[in-house]
């Protein structure tokens, strides 16, 4: 395993809290992308959750979440957004998506450090939303 923390073990399947994760290669072969998690070495409570492979398999930018949220929630959000893309929904910078999780709004922006990446920020939905 490389020096970056990953929920997905490279050599096989890992069982974690009753959920089974396939390795990156199996997810790539099955879905055309995979989700990774990297922890910040200086602050391990901050993680970067991101997809790999969307640009190559679908011609779409990869997605990332850089907020302190539950890893399973981050992965669920990323999978749901990819599913929306697969259904023909465009995901673009400046867009606000309100129907993924009750009470939350996903705000899409261009990543400051990756040209093929979109950043997903989470905010509380207000009555005006």
Question: How would you describe this structure to a colleague?
Answer:
The protein is of the alpha+beta class. The protein has one domain (14-124). It has three helices and eight strands; from the N terminus they run ββαββαβαβββ. The chain has helices spanning 24-31, 54-58, 71-86; strands spanning 14-16, 19-21, 34-39, 47-52, 62-65, 96-97, 104-110, 117-124. The strands form two sheets. The protein has a six-stranded mixed β-sheet with strand order 3-4-5-8-7-6. Strands 1-2 form a two-stranded antiparallel sheet. A hairpin with a 7-residue loop joins β3 and β4. The radius of gyration is 15 Å and the shape is globular. Residues 1-21 have low confidence and may be disordered.
Main features:
single chain; 129 residues; alpha+beta; two-stranded antiparallel ribbon; 3 helices; 8 strands; 22% helix; 30% strand
């Amino acid at each position: 395993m490389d020096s970056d923390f990953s929920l997905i073990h490279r050599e096989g399947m890992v069982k974690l809290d009753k959920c089974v994760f396939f390795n990156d290669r199996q997810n790539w072969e099955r879905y055309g992308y995979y989700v990774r998690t990297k922890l910040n070495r200086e602050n391990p409570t901050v993680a970067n959750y991101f997809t790999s492979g969307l640009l190559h398999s679908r011609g779409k930018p990869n997605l990332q979440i850089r907020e302190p949220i539950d890893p399973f929630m981050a992965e669920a959000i990323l999978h749901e957004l990819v599913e929306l893309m697969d259904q023909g929904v465009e995901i673009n910078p400046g867009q606000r998506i309100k129907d993924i999780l009750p009470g939350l709004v996903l705000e899409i922006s261009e990543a400051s450090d990756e040209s093929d990446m979109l950043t997903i920020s989470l905010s509380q939905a207000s009555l005006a939303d």
